[in-house]
Write a structure and sequence with these properties.
Helix content: 40-55%
Bound molecules: beta-D-glucopyranose
Oligomer: single chain
CATH class of the largest domain: Alpha Beta
Length: about 350
């Protein structure tokens, strides 16, 4: 019922507005025939700490995607504070955004933001993280179960088909993606002759806390850890730090995600076994497309639906394909524009880049 209500409002709004999706000339999105009153999209990123991706990859990719489409936009960051996200959302709604996209900090606060937006006739989109019990019109993300499967398979490839003790450092318990990553990784690793000797979720993906948690799990396992399933590059880096202090870095494979500069450097150096590349450009463009469709009152092209188990609904989704990155294909990320060689190949990494054919 709610959904219909909001779609109705979006439909009404779209009749009052014109939006042209092909302009790329000017900042305000003027495309010649379009009026000034085009839709405006608000995006709220979650934080700057759980991953460098949000500010270093997503923000520039989103800006580029909206500029390219000629869509007025406002991108802000909640700095890890759900109350701040709520305030930003209120301000954006007050400022007249037509579509609001959020990367929730937890489903409860995300759902409340979406409910309020909806009541004001503002359509919402879940960007990257699904808001359980929420009311987003679309979910734009990668296939996060596949992300976990790639991590599990990457670790299995590094460990081989022999007995091994594994520690899992999962993402934040408030992030639905973290659940999917862990499920995907387990679906692969539980089939291998490995033993799970420690598993913990890291609150808010906090890298410092991850180091403390990993140290505890490592000590509890008597240092008998052969592999680490870390849910992203930040958590992987935390585990690598502890392994380094124990003279084990490079001997114990560690996974990651986000293809960050540090993650790729660790992969080149051999302290990290793999990372997962999720093109920010692709994700940002998918968000821009979905937002434009909503502003125009049209339906966005979806790849299927995802189940919101809490809300009991199937959310129309655009799920993109993640890519596994090992030492052999770090260059793919750079070729795709996911990182710049000049950022990755600095200092001691220059030679490693040259060896890997990256310039
Ligand atoms: C994202 C990851 C990111 C993590 C921490 C997840 O929801 O999908 O790319 O590393 O949050 O920000």
């Amino acid at each position: 019922m709610k959904r219909k209500h909001s779609l109705f409002l979006v439909g009404m709004l779209s009749t009052a507005m014109t939006l042209t999706a092909c302009g790329n000339e000017s900042e305000g999105g003027e495309t010649g025939s379009a009026s000034e009153s085009e839709g405006k999209v608000g995006v709220i990123l979650p934080d700057t700490e759980s991953s460098v991706r949000w500010e270093s990859a997503d923000r520039p990719a989103l800006e580029a995607a909206f500029d390219e489409a000629g869509v007025d936009h406002d991108i802000q960051n909640a700095e890890g504070d759900a109350e701040k996200m709520t305030q930003i959302a209120d301000t954006m709604i007050g400022d007249g955004v037509t579509v609001l996209a959020i990367v929730n900090l937890d489903s409860e606060s995300g759902a409340a933001i979406q409910e309020k937006a909806e009541s004001q006739g503002v359509a919402t989109i879940d960007y990257d993280r699904l808001t359980l019990g929420g009311s987003a019109e679309y979910y734009v993300s990668f296939d996060n179960t596949v992300v976990g499967e790639l991590q599990g398979q990457g670790l299995a490839d590094c460990l081989g088909d022999k007995e091994a003790n594994i520690v899992y450092l999962n993402g934040s318990p408030t992030d639905n993606n973290a659940t999917l990553f862990a499920e995907g990784a387990h679906s692969v690793l539980d089939e291998m002759p490995y033993e799970n000797v420690g598993e913990q979720a890291v609150p808010e993906w906090d890298n410092e806390e991850a180091a403390t948690i990993f140290q505890q799990l490592y000590t509890a396992a008597d240092g008998k850890v052969d592999g680490v399933l870390a849910a992203n590059d930040g958590l992987g880096g935390a585990a690598i730090g502890v392994l380094e202090a124990n003279g084990q870095a490079g001997k114990v494979p560690v996974t990651g995600q986000d293809a960050t500069v540090e993650g790729l450097q660790n992969v080149l150096a051999g302290t990290q076994c793999m990372t997962v590349y999720k093109s920010a450009t692709q994700e940002a463009e998918a968000l821009a497309d979905a937002a434009i469709a909503l502003v125009k009152g049209e339906e966005a092209e979806t790849t299927g639906t995802v189940e919101d188990s809490e809300g009991g609904r199937d959310v129309p989704a655009i799920l993109l394909e993640p890519q596994s990155i090992t030492k052999d294909n770090v260059g793919d990320v750079i070729e795709d524009g996911g990182q710049k060689a000049e950022d990755v190949c600095v200092d001691e990494f220059a030679d490693l880049c040259a060896d890997a054919g990256i310039s």
